[in-house]
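Researcher: Going back to the complex we discussed earlier. I've cleaned up the inputs and rechecked each line, so this should be the final set. Can you rerun the prediction on the complete assembly and write out the structure?
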Amino acid sequence: MKVPRSIGCTALLLIAGVSAQTFQRLGTCPTLGCIFPPDQADFLAGQHFDIRLEVHAPLNGSEATGNPHADEKFTFTITKGKRKAVSAVDYFKLPEPKLEHWNFTWFEDLFAKDAGKPSVVNVTSKAYRKVALHEPGEYTATLTYNNGTITKASWLVRDLQEVRKTKNIVLFIGDGMTTNMITAARLIAHKTVNGKYQSLMAMDKFPVLGHQMTHSIDSFITDSANSATALYTGHKSTVNCLGVYADSSKDPFDDPKVETIAEMFHRLIGGSIGIVSTAFIADATPAALTAHTRDRSQYGSIVDAFLNGVTNYTWTNWTGPDVLFGGGAEQFYDPKLGGKTYQNKNYYDEFARKGYQVLWNNTALSKAKSDSKALGIFTVSNMAKWLDRNVYKTNLNQSLSPSGDTTPALDQPGLKDMTLKAIDILSARSGDKGFFLMSEAASIDKMMHVLDYDRALGELLELDDTIKATIERLKTLNKFKETLILVTADHGHGFDVMGSVDTKYMAVQKTDRKKRDAIGTYQNSGLSQYANTGNLTYTEGVHFPSNWDPRYTLFQGLKANPDIRENFQVHKDGPRSPAVNISNTSAADYYVNPKDGKDGFVVNGTLPPSDDQGVHSLTDVPVFAMGPCQERFGGVYSSTDVFFGMAECLGLGRGRHH
Amino acid sequence: MKVPRSIGCTALLLIAGVSAQTFQRLGTCPTLGCIFPPDQADFLAGQHFDIRLEVHAPLNGSEATGNPHADEKFTFTITKGKRKAVSAVDYFKLPEPKLEHWNFTWFEDLFAKDAGKPSVVNVTSKAYRKVALHEPGEYTATLTYNNGTITKASWLVRDLQEVRKTKNIVLFIGDGMTTNMITAARLIAHKTVNGKYQSLMAMDKFPVLGHQMTHSIDSFITDSANSATALYTGHKSTVNCLGVYADSSKDPFDDPKVETIAEMFHRLIGGSIGIVSTAFIADATPAALTAHTRDRSQYGSIVDAFLNGVTNYTWTNWTGPDVLFGGGAEQFYDPKLGGKTYQNKNYYDEFARKGYQVLWNNTALSKAKSDSKALGIFTVSNMAKWLDRNVYKTNLNQSLSPSGDTTPALDQPGLKDMTLKAIDILSARSGDKGFFLMSEAASIDKMMHVLDYDRALGELLELDDTIKATIERLKTLNKFKETLILVTADHGHGFDVMGSVDTKYMAVQKTDRKKRDAIGTYQNSGLSQYANTGNLTYTEGVHFPSNWDPRYTLFQGLKANPDIRENFQVHKDGPRSPAVNISNTSAADYYVNPKDGKDGFVVNGTLPPSDDQGVHSLTDVPVFAMGPCQERFGGVYSSTDVFFGMAECLGLGRGRHH
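Model: Rerun complete. Updated structure for the full complex:
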């Protein structure tokens, strides 16, 4: 979307750097002096962020200098354009931060890891908290250390239009969703007649299409924390990071923060925020809207951050979202019932005390008032899958009640129920200020991880059904014309469909090689049997498969997998568990789950044997846009540009006025 | 792009049809009465096509009726809208076609095939040749057979704008190219600094992005013949078909034809046509512009059709393209030298006799005149790959000279050389009429088939480099503002990148399971080593990897594969041959090529053991558009809509005026 700037000094040094790849001393810091945010970071004008400086003294390994002491006398300046550089203390009018010390270890490669020989690094550091750059343009941050060695970072405050173009945004995230998966979901749920689809996915009808690049700042494969951070803050980060750049300290809460779109929309405009997910609600994609931690697994703290924002460092005020719906009751109910909560509090009580309606099932959700804030937690852990809620319903017994009483959670809403109620509440409460809703179909990703393709596609179709219903609801509420709807993903899985499988033929063949003859490619793939035959669960118009268990199924899958057995049939007994640990030592060693994929053939793994599930992939993911400001989202761009696009559309790019 | 019409009668019957999938009696004909073009076909106003009718009498199997005689007294009518139906003979003012008879066999499923029990079908048939529908709107074609049984086909002549919006079209086809592959190519060829790309692919900069659905008319996985037919004619067809619908007769040349965009642009406007491919030129993607056959392997006839058009049936006049560049000399040189040509002619002579310059190498290509038609055939079979022409050059010895003299073809052009020369010739010769150029990067597909990921990505990067150079050349010729540039694919392969591989670590591990520990995912994927380190072959600005053989390579691949051994290293000795036939019977049985992937680990196949290579996949493929009329190509649509979009942009939608 913009012409790249000249490459900074750190980039030139990168080329000469060590070849470490599987492990890195510290991402985004190839030299011994580190600035966070690093070179090439982009900012929204006025966006709050922290600065972290580090100076490294490697004690051993390929980078050892012979001096074990990290420099304590480093200096740091800021300048805009060609102006004179001034110290950060003067620039930001802050007191000098205290000097910090720590050390950390890392492995230079797998040989060093096998040999148990880590490299040790001593560190000196300072952090400048809650600063901002208000004027658009290029800035240079300069760290001088070790008697004159320099690390520079070129920062850009983007010069955006300041006119607000949309009142509301609904951002749908299909976690792990790729174009390949959308194509497969369309195939099983929509009918073709002689090669012409008689209906299309809701997202197929969006007028503007883009692709966003999902890679991390320091590795080309991302996780959902890191990628959500990019989408919400405009700053790419490191795997497992929520709303921070990763420093090298052990404390998961002291890493340098960047302000999210939810925080800015709340602070600058007072708009309402809604957060909906089918995951446990402390999971990365919802969490990244308000949490700031290097460790996405700090679930208790993340739930506290939804309500109270950042409490351990100076940061922007936060008064909680208007809507918070999802799973993950274990971070809410009383520790006496087994809850794993922040400071052993009961978070149902904490939310209720601040005026939230507390909802535990779909019945209560449907009756909830639209004029009050609402917390809806509908199960322990992740919510039940569409396929189990709608087709294989006895599997709902595998869910636990949000109360913590260990009964099953049989009355769970789906993504559509939660999203429509969220829109009702946000519409009623946001007034002239507008709202921002993030709604996540989390288990596309979770089911692709366990290679349960049918459940993953069911979740994707539920997302699509939710999008369709959202458009209708917004029209009913007379909000459609003032709402930008975006549908995107945070990363992919290497999934595709390559043909069909005659499961009846496969089941009766005697050898693994002969079973493979059941696979039909090209003209032998034939037509989808999911939408056209028998066992009608859903009728025309709703666009889910009418038959999830046809004789001819899809030949589908991922290249990255543990050892598994594939029969390409729907898993009727609940989400798939493809591999089990066969190790009798502490080191995991996964092999085919003997209970999984009976009648199928064994496919040996391509991942390290310690992995029990599939992994994320590199592919650009689609962005579908409809509504005011939609034209901002066409073409190919970085995941961070989704943030800048949304921020500009909401009128948050207010450079000169603040 | 348009609201689907109501489902025709054949669709309702389809739901009740037999469950055959791996094999079908006849695609697009689930009943015993068949109309081609079938129900739901769309047409450009005035587009020439043939009609084929068939009545089937199954003698045995699940559909047998007891009557072995196919009806000879069937009738066929046409009507538009609510007008009175009239016989096709009257409607098109044609003589009654002669009645044809034949029979064919098929297997109902794999069990029937294993048992050697085919189903036999007797057929009666008629064909109406070279008809057209001139008025936009809905038509109904009705076949009445077996004493009153009816098959209806609803046909739509699209109502398009008739104002020409672009003078020229350059259509780039990356054969088999997916978004996933583009992402991988960007990763290895373009540098990032702290998560920000410092340069982008040429196609990344196109302003309009679409997705097209590639499936066949009668199977959800397509081949390149079928998909090229959809892109060039607006009619989806069957695997192996070029410019025809597949009937059940044995003759590969009597199937009902549909007119291509090249034929219409030539007939209606007299515009110039260019055809460029890195494949042998009789291969499906170039062939489908002028050939009309049910069997894409009729290579000799296909080459004749480039020059002379369809000669065995009434059809539109055709005088040959202005430019035809590619490989495949064996369909040109004298049969005395081993040429496999149509009617044993020397096609270099045939083309020369019609005024073509004949070019055999890059030197001659560079010196070719721009004011004469040109045939450039640069090697036997497929052209050498970018990686072999530019990095591992000794492999050029694996190519054979286009002369047929069995010497190596060492002076081969690349896609860029051929495309730029084509643009020079087309620009010089087309005058006010404009030109249509199809330029195909064929070996993205060919190298993905043999799981040679590096060569496939090299071909993709060459395509991107060609796009960049094309834009520059069009600007130089002052043709850029009057030329629509499209970049798309004809289908995908299920490819993605999931992490990195420490090839040095993998090579020295002793067991296959331990070798898998060399794979790094998520944060351990690290940064691309292809653009940043050592062995510089290409410099900044050209955007190919500087090092194809780094220690840390990509963990990449396809789910659909024969038994193979993967070491994830570049194949320096030429294109990969992943599996070999270990059978000592006539039935093929492929297993790991013992010479391939040494130091790697074995990945067992997921395809039938008779397959020696990967297969196509389902995924929607991207469409990048730039230039006049670009806005026509955003969003999600069928592959056939690419034809209608291009035809409309060229002003070929001339309904009422003819």
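Model: Worth noting: Residues 453-476 of chain A form the longest helix (24 residues).
Researcher: Good, that matches what I expected from the previous run.
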